[in-house]
């Protein structure tokens, strides 16, 4: 069976990709600017938005 890659992730899928175990941490990311799409009460995170958000938060290893 072929695994389907989806562009629009549920919160649970996004948390799995990020390696998060806490919903609170995901909501912190959302408050920090991670875009969320809401249609008819269903909230999704676009995979490219997730990647772009994480990339935009790189820190210099000397600053970390």
Structural features, described:
With 64 residues, the protein is α+β, with helices and mostly antiparallel strands. The chain has helices spanning 11-18, 23-31, 47-55; strands spanning 8-9, 37-39, 42-46. Strands 1-3-2 form a three-stranded antiparallel beta sheet. The longest helix has 9 residues, at 23-31.
Keywords:
alpha+beta, 64 residues, 3-stranded antiparallel beta sheet, globular
Characterize this entry briefly.
The chain is of the alpha+beta class. It has 3 helices and 3 strands.
CA-atom Rg in angstroms: 13 Å
Helix content: 40-55%
Largest sheet: 3 strands, antiparallel
Number of strands: 3
Strand order of the largest sheet: 1-3-2
Compute the separation of the termini in Å: 43 Å
- Spans with pLDDT under 50 lasting ≥5 residues? none
What is the average per-residue confidence, as pLDDT, rounded to a whole number?
91
Q: List the helices and strands in order.
A: EHHEEH
What is the beta-strand fraction? 15-25%
Based on CA inertia axes, which overall geometry fits? globular
Question: So how many helices?
Answer: 3
Class by alpha and beta content: alpha+beta
Task: Please outline the helices and strands.
Blueprint: E1 8-9, H1 11-18, H2 23-31, E2 37-39, E3 42-46, H3 47-55
Antiparallel strand pairs: 1-3, 2-3
């Amino acid at each position: 069976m072929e695994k389907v890659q989806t562009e629009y992730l549920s919160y649970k899928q996004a948390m799995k990709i990020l390696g998060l175990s806490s919903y609170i941490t995901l909501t912190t990311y959302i408050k920090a600017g991670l875009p969320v799409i809401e249609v008819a009460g269903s909230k999704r995170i676009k995979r490219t938005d997730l990647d772009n958000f994480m990339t935009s938060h790189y820190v210099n290893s000397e600053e970390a």
